[in-house]
Amino acid sequence: MATQRPLTKVQIVTHFSEKFDLEKKVVSTIIDEVRALAIAETKKTGSFVLPGVGKLVEKLKKGMLNEQVMGGKQASFSGVMGPYLNEMPNPAAA
């Protein structure tokens, strides 16, 4: 199986603009608004569901341990909350 690169935003915008006969600027604005809504809701409630696509949940990313080369000291960075997408199962694939 050949590995393919994921679609870019430009490719997605072009696809939807051709499919629904909309201007690319309108489609781009819709995608940006969905992104902003998903991030805002995830920060506010801890999750965001895009029906049929997936559920975006906030997940704690592990902290890091960084060693400074010059001083020989270790610096610890605490964990950070970030979005994580849980994909919805595809009923057609079953």
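the 2nd protein, sequnce then structure:
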Amino acid sequence: MKLYLHFGAGGIGRALAGPIFSRAGYNVLFVDAVPQLVELLHERREYTVRVKDTLPPGTPDSEVIRNVDALALTDHNSVSGSMEFAVAAHALGLRAIHGAEVDLEFTLLCSFNL
């Protein structure tokens, strides 16, 4: 089965991209920085999308999205989880792209008069 990888398991990822690609026959893999959300998606392998709009009579107001999984990407100012991420990605047939979110501090060495 084909794999769709989506960075971010928030509203757009789960409510829009997940259903589209799941219906098209893809396994959907979310990468997110919220461990609790990743844990739930990984354990359940599915979630429900509820439509909160006016629908024509007889149209279902929810849909179960299946064939989903999730990976957590939570390193900040380090790459301590990089190897674990690479192993998990390899097990899914993916090439891991490593990076880091870092905080930067700088001092402005000049001033401008406008």
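The chain has a mean pLDDT of 84. Helices lie at 11-23, 35-44, 82-91.
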